[in-house]
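Continuing the batch. This is chain 6 of the set; chains 1 through 5 are on the previous pages. Same settings as before, nothing changed between runs. Recording input and output for traceability.
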Amino acid sequence: MSNGIHWIGEHNLVPRTPGLPGMREGISLTVARGISAREFLISLGAHAEDLDKGTLFKDRKKKSTATFDSFAMYGTQREWVYVLETPPDATWYAQIFNPQRRKKLDGVEIICVTQREDDPPPYVSHVTPEGQTSDVEWGALTGHPDFDEALRSAGAIYPSVQDSPKEEVLIYWEEYMDDLLPRIFTAVGNYCELEISQCEVEAGNLPLAIFPPAF
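Output for chain 6:
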């Protein structure tokens, strides 16, 4: 079963499935190109010796020595490395609040769709290879024309989010969030020509990466 990465958005807001060896709900996605998977994971805080073990996500130890470590799974496709996580914030996005941890990666393009369950609203981040960075709420333009065109084509841009009073925005999110999420993930999948197997992710058959807290 695979339909690009549209499926990540379809399952994002449903209740979590207990006992699932991998991931299905509440997934944050970070993708990067212009860098190797190993280099990118290490830039997020993963340890080289852990990566060398080649442990699968489904075989991770249930408890970490560091209480707030983030357990992620990752893979590569074409030019892109992708990282999937289910904590409140994607590790790359969380590092925006700690400039010493969020390293500038010259020539690397990064896209991040993060949940921010503990501190909504959710965000889409985009860093161009030239280093231009945007962090915007779901449904807004990033200011980067090629990526914004992918968002528009997928129906993932809602100008009223930016123009409405706060009270109307809250009502708006409640009405359109279920539809907006699949559109955003569709846009990212189309832009990156990325396809991630739902079956493999649910089964936890992708390799494990462990990231320390961003703070």
